[in-house]
Amino acid sequence: MGNLGFMTLMLAGVLAFYGMITSVIGAKINSEGLTRSATNASYLTSFILSISTLCLIYAFTTHDFSLNYVASHSSLNLDPKLTWVALYAGNEGSLLFIAWIFSVLATIAIWKCPILAKPGLPYTTATLMFILLFYIVVMSTMANPFEKLDIPPIDGRGMNPLLTHPGMFLHPPMLMTGLIGVGIPFSFGIGQLISGEQGNEWLIAARYWGLIIWCILTIGLMLGSWWAYTILGWGGYWGWDPVENAGLLPWLPLTAFVHSIIVQQRRNMFKSWNIALIIFAWGFAMYGMFMNRGGPVPSVHSFGQSTMGWIFLLFLGFNLIVALILFYINHKKLKDNSQIDSFLSREASFLVNNLLFLLIAFVTLWGVLYPLISDIFKGVVVTVGQPYYNTLTGPIFLCLVVLMGIGPLMPWRSLNNKRIMKRFITPIIISTVTLIICIILGINKIAPLISFSTCTFVLTGILREWITGTRLRSKRNNEILPIAFIKLLLSNKPRYGGYIAHFGVVILAFSVTGSSFFSLQQDFSLSLGQEAELGNYKIQYIAIENITNADNVETKAIVNLYKNGSFLGILKPGYVFYPSFNMASVRAGIISSPVEDFYLIASEFRENQAMFRIHINPLVFWMWISGPIFILGTVLALLPGKPKYSIEIEQLEKR
Amino acid sequence: MEYLIIGMLSILSLLITIRPLTHLPKELDRTDPNKNLFNARSAIYQEMELLRLDYELGLLETGQYQKQIHQYRIQLASILIAEGNT
């Protein structure tokens, strides 16, 4: 199957090259036949790459150790369920996965291209095929997943132990799909720029794809946090690791983009700004690929590490230069038809929101690059740690949450002061009451006080919108309240989907605040039978358990857990040691509740003694709840409905 | 076997790719103009409905609301004329 896999890869490369060249020629000479031929070639790339991917999966399932990649990332003992994870466990396989998923997304994007974006579609297709071709060329010349070994080993090396976690079934594919997926709205943007249209034609496609990719990237990041929390064994969920940051960086301008595209739809503004945002997002996504494929900063995530980071850096540079040249050439065509009437308007709040997201992105980028910069200019590697990120980005995130509450209450264009007061009065009262309650409850730190009251402000704003809208609808149409509420949500899916996503952000902010400012942590050295207490919890070290498996050795502490004197359960924290990788994977003992998580790590096992680290992390539970809410909101916003035709109508009138 | 499969895939790809060059479909990707107009018209009705809801929620000033509704009515009229002409 190795030969077939490689040859299909080559065939996909030929098709991508043909699709890229032919679509441009077809557009230039206005040949419908050529552009259709290019489209067919583009569709075929996904079919052919699917076969290539299936060949690699087949090689894993049949333990074909004649393939270097299979021998390096699986073994005879590998749980068959993990075959899917093995596919992208290393550099070559993950590149194949990225190319395959991108080809599938590209096919759907071309197939479902909205009518308005059709004039730029040949150039969009060419851009998509160019990106795909890059990955295929890299695989076929530098990272061939079907490379054969002269002497196949009897057994493979096995899979990186850190990847044997349930989160790995979805986290890496989601993140890789999210990162490469930014290429879809980017390609529509480039198609728009090259075709020289007026700046609104790509809107529907860009919004749709922007939201889909945003949702995928969000899920990827959240699953990554969950993985870090449960397997890295440091008690936290976000460590500002360089590769974590690489995933976050494109998410930030993409979030700004999915907001500002609404302004272009509604007010015909921010045309060039939106193109710039998607170029930024793509630049950051490519930077993420560079970091993952041999970036200069070490990371706990570097499973796909290789020495070919430079090629991704070159690709990033080329993409940015071409995109910026096209942007410069076309900037006059992208001039806005209207401007912000007042600072107290929804469009102004969108602009501030965008700037804050970009500010966080550049603060994060500076933190990631600072060790390199300090090394180049001072000869000393100065590492930037969590305090830098938390201190600088924390307040900006809080400002964003505040803005998230203010923005939806603002009208388009402008509003007089009386109306502003009317709309803001209830949220302000409720958030002030929350502030007072928090102070009474003994919270005396400024940041959480601001955060909790801000969360209630936003929540009240959203609820107020829902309640007022539902009542109005119920009264006007004689509908019962639940029906009126559902119909209200369905009446403007993008808006109410956005509110649901905002609701998810409030829950996330609530959780981050709780876990950041009220967590407890302490280390204990316990002998068998000894007890330790932290907060309301008490642990008792009962026994040690050693289990030898085929490819690893598990060492676990058996611990009884009590809360306020009542028995809560037995925890088995420990680690799994993988001799073939000389690597240990931590298994924390976690008991989670809506109020707080009890998180126990055991290490340094001796005959009768072990070290224990207890974390009590309040409100972390809500972080994992916020994820499905984000998805729900995005799905609602994406649900098909009658699209906004204001731009189509404008064009229709011109005809 | 592998070479046979790749050979067949190559031929299939070639056929699918060159087909539009030899058999240009008579009906190209043109959407029915009447359908477009109908979609646009129903979308305007929906926009007007949303605008009214926005106004009732206090998201719009009376002046803005009336101006916007007026614009929609003009757009609607131009669509109805276009529909009549097709």
Describe this structure in words.
The complex is a heterodimer of chains A (655) and B (86). Chain A has 655 residues and is an alpha+beta fold. Chain A folds into 4 domains: 1-164, no CATH class; 170-375, no CATH class; 416-517; 520-618. Chain A has 20 helices and 10 strands. In chain A, helix 6 packs across helix 8 (183-195) and helix 16 (446-477) packs across helix 17 (481-491). Chain B is mainly α. Chain B has one domain. Chain B is built from 3 helices and no strands. Chain B has helices at residues 2-22, 33-56, 62-85. In chain B, helix 2 (33-56) packs antiparallel against helix 3. The mean pLDDT of chain B is 78. At the A-B interface, helix 1, helix 2, helix 15, helix 16 and helix 20 of A face helix 1, helix 2 and helix 3 of B.
Q: What is the number of strand segments of chain B?
A: 0
In percent, how much strand structure appears in the residues of chain A?
A: 5-15%
The ordered string of helix (H) and strand (E) elements of chain A is HHHHHHHHHHHHHHHHHHEEEEEEEEEEHH
Number of domains of chain A: 4
Main beta-sheet annotation of chain A: 6 strands, antiparallel
**Alpha-beta classification of chain B:** mainly alpha
| Biggest interface between chains | A-B, 47 and 42 residues
Enumerate the spans of chain B where pLDDT stays under 50 for 5 or more consecutive residues.
none
Shape of chain B: elongated
Beta strand count of chain A: 10
Uncertain parts of chain A: none
How far the N terminus sits from the C terminus of chain B, by CA atoms, comes to: 58 Å
Order of helices and strands of chain B: HHH
